[in-house]
Amino acid sequence: MRGERLIDAIGDTPLVRLGLPGRPDVRAYAKLEMGNLFAMKDRVARNIILRARASGELAEGAPLVESSSGTMALGVALVGRALGHPVHIVTDPRIDAITLAKLDALGCAVHVVSHMDERGWQGARLAMLGRIMAENPGAFWPRQYENPDNPAAYRTLADELLAELDHIDTIVGPVGSGGSLCGTTRALRETLPELRAVGVDCVGSVLFGQPDWPQRLQSGLGNSMHPPNLDRTVIDEVHWLNDREAFAATRDLAREQFLFAGNTSGSAYRVLTWLAERAEPGATIVGIFPDRGDRYVDTVHSEKFWADRNLTALPLRTSPRLVPPDAVVREWAYSVRPDENRPAFVFVESNTTGTGMRAPATARRLGYRPVFLTDRPERYLGLADAPAETVVCDTGDLAAMTDALAGLLPLEQVSAVGTTSEFYLLAAAELAARLGLPAAAPAAVARCRNKAELRATLAAAGVPQPEFAFVADAEEIGAVPVPCVVKPVDESGSTGVLRCTTAREAAAQVRAITAVTVNGRGQRRAPGALVESYAVGPEYSVEMIGVDGEPRLYAIVEKSLVDDVQFVEAGHVVPADLAADTAQAIADTVRKALLALGMTHGATHTEVRLTAAGPVVIEVNPRLAGGMIPELVRVGTGVDLLEQQVRHLGGLPVAEPAPFDGHAGIRFLRADVRGTLTAVDGVAEAEAEPFVRQVTVTVSPGAVVGPPTDAYGRLGYVIAHAPSRAELDRALDRAVALVRFRVAAAGSAGASWVSGS
Question: In Gene Ontology terms, what is a biological process of this protein (predicted)?
Fold first, then answer.
């Protein structure tokens, strides 16, 4: 192609088919915009400047002023200087030495801001640009982020593609100002209305709803501001890559396709190849590769730069996970329009309380497609009405769960895995790890679930806890200090936990525990039993969620027990009535325990006793609390812990802890005699009591009831919320006294009424 002017050489860039192993039936092309004199933005600079000259907005010889740290600066310099204009470029310290050298060689004035303002580097640059414009009357600012001549410049690129290809299914392009992908897509859709547009952004860019991270290292895409030229309605799918992933992809582009390029091209290449792997046979995909690699020799292509910035410490995914549009991402992820496939949130079984069936509904409300894995759907009374797809499979087998999911949907569409059941915490963690999803480390979950391992880990870290011993059978019990507590190694809900006052009683309890080899879900129990010294003092639980490796404290819960023998909980109150220094000591002890266990991701429910020597850790559970404690926190603070856990597992922002408004509490309903329940009375009266928020009975007439020996023997609960602790206690006392259970005692001729307390 011959040109009469230098700027006539802009455009008509090469279109080359990429060799992608394994998919010869998919046509994947790279539009090498790096083949322009400088880069892709040469097109934008030429179109904007020529139109401004034609309209009279830019006079002959008038200055050009633009804000850019990359290829737009070079494009303006090229076109502006070639047409006889002085050129001022406003940039920031992230500009590379090669671009600076080129701008200087072309005779441009370069102005470098020294620091960010409240809007980041872009804001600081625009402030300086305004001052330069004021000092140069008649100067023209191309305004790449809002000038409609930016996206209009890419009609020529679209025309070039249509001249070469008979059909295009998908176009992939990096997004910075929004001009290239939006402009090209609009022009192509005039001929190809079904064209799918996929944008490529970077982690830490605000363009598609992510929080700003000005320290991100990628250049040429992403933004700290929302440019008007970005029309999000044009883009069907967006991908985010972190710095390591983008830079690694750029190196792969060189090694695999022999193209020495910048990180915008590398990111486009990574997404293009992933799409090609999943495309229908015969599909045509085009990726826009904006710039070459000479500007990146000291960054992307420098081993020293990688080492200095510790890039290998960042996550590196080989495929993205599907997330809702407002998810916060730290590694390769993608999102689609709301009317397309939702990312899947997989639940592995559930507890059998109301919170279990609330979890899928919460996930649905947050934009997910809930999928419920279970081996026995009939276990859950509300499952038929839950907004979740039920998949029956062996939830004790990792391969079976993976295969069941793969038969339902592409595994990359699974965005999160969780459970509300104590018994499936490890299974959920292992499934998340198998799928490469963020979740608590399986090893950390296993340490918490196995109380013997938990005790050993805390002892090694010097965390205050009761003295303990693991015994394989009753013969190992020996002469133990009494009173002591004997418990199963990996049960739930206080099952099998007993305070023993003699060694004989402790040995009997060990025999009772070891005689049971499976738990209530049919899973094999860990062998042996744990014997612990009895910690004297009031009991509390500490509710935290680990975010970014730091456990956040949401509540310290004051707990009351039916007795101090079987440790069945009678009720809870939030916030606990504690002095500030005592509350801090409890929170610090729990944080130390969580860090020792490696439990810094997601919800934890830690039980503590406040002894004369200070707080000691009784148990650490890698889950939300049961016993309706999350509901008490929601009533008292407005923060829904179940929602926060769902949000956290899915990568969505998590609410900060909030102060309590008054006091919230729960009392559990129970029967004091054993027999068959024939009737329940007084619920309506209890609900009418001042400050009472909820009265729930969880059993029906015909059930066999009696004094509870664990959490599963309770008959319901009353929840209240009052301005003061005294008012709360009175409301709970009155409401519980009003609820009565008619029980026909075993061996008796009639039934008698007993209160729920």
Answer: alpha-amino acid metabolic process
